[in-house]
Amino acid sequence: MFKGKARAYTNIALIKYWGKKDEALILPMNNSLSLTLDAFYTETEVIFSDTFTKDEFYLDGEQQNDKATKKISTFLDLVREKGQTTLNAKVISQNFVPTAAGLASSASGLAALAGACNEALQLGLDDTGLSRLARRGSGSACRSIYGGFVEWEKGFDDLTSYAKQISSDGFEDDLAMVFLLLNDQQKDVSSRDGMRRTVETSSFYQGWLDSLDADLAQLKQAITDKNFQSLGETMERNALKMHGTTLAANPPFTYWSPDSLRAMQAVRDLRKQGVPCYFTMDAGPNVKILVEKKHVTTVKTACSHLFSKKQVVSAQAGSGMTIIK
Ligand code: ADP
Ligand code: DP6
């Protein structure tokens, strides 16, 4: 029997990954850049044993159905190939983040699974190897191997597509992200299906790709300069552009709810009142607000007037994947 357990934190992209150029290998169309956060995470244990007759996947105490287990098995096949074993596995995972609600459970989930498998089978993967492995489970997971600011370089094949930490001279320690948990139900259109539909059908998609290099360069410069305004403006613009592409897909769709719009307006109103803060959104209705730590309380108080206190959760920069002994 071989066992491993790991914890990984979610990350939120400031420059989004939106679209694959290779569905099987999960190679992205564009580079993306994220901040790993400390409030939401996954802990996963994996056990490989010759007493198991098939793979089993337990999430939050419940055995998962065939479809969810199949996804895990496909990932485990990669791991088994690397570890030169045919043993079946039991995966026991706990999400300290709502699952499939646009809060990046796939990132923390697959990064934790990659780490646990590396430990269990003693694969000896370094961070780059782990990032490449996690990427095969879910693209954004390749960034959750690292803490702080992380860039996923799209690369051009399986070997060259992985994430790296970006040095920032501690800028991330000045920052916080306020999460507005507007809806924690599983979404109708997963990130995977949403980005595929957008790449295949959205007439706005080329515009997204064309503007990416400029957004990325500006965001990286903002990190170097520790320029919060430029960081926030670039992040917000990039998110709006990503969400714009879904409106021109066929059939069109959106991850926004009426509450998402209220939250975005609240951020704009706060800025008008002189509080620097900026929003981003992923494949779900929840809104995340980037703010300097010194303004967190102001932002949280303002949001608690619009939504319930329970719905407003703040996070700081988090660390990379860790093994739990
Ligand atoms: P999210 O916004 O939460 O990342 P996605 O639709 O992108 O939503 O991904 C959700 C999917 O990620 C789930 O359906 C499941 O396949 C996978 N996932 C989530 N949590 C875990 C976990 N702890 N272990 C393995 N896979 C997970
Ligand atoms: C909008 O990494 O969940 O959150 O690679 O298909 O598993 P798959 O998709 P996933 O997509 C994340 C999309 C996003 C943007 C981002 O995190 O960069």
UniProtKB/TrEMBL annotation:
It is an enzyme of class 4 (lyase). Gene3D superfamilies: 3.30.230.10, GHMP kinase, C-terminal domain. Belongs to the diphosphomevalonate decarboxylase family. Pfam families: MDD_C, MVD-like_N. Keywords: ATP-binding, Lipid biosynthesis, Lipid metabolism, Lyase, Nucleotide-binding. The keyword ATP-binding applies. Residues 178-314 form the Mvd1 C-terminal domain. This is diphosphomevalonate decarboxylase. Residues 8-163 form the Diphosphomevalonate decarboxylase-like N-terminal domain. The lineage of its organism: Bacteria, Bacillati, Bacillota, Bacilli, Lactobacillales. One of its GO terms (molecular function) is diphosphomevalonate decarboxylase activity. It comes from the Bacteria. InterPro entries: GHMP_kinase_C_sf (IPR036554), Mev_decarb (IPR005935), Mev_diP_decarb (IPR029765), MVD-like_N (IPR053859), Mvd1_C (IPR041431), Ribosomal_Su5_D2-typ_SF (IPR020568), Ribsml_uS5_D2-typ_fold_subgr (IPR014721).
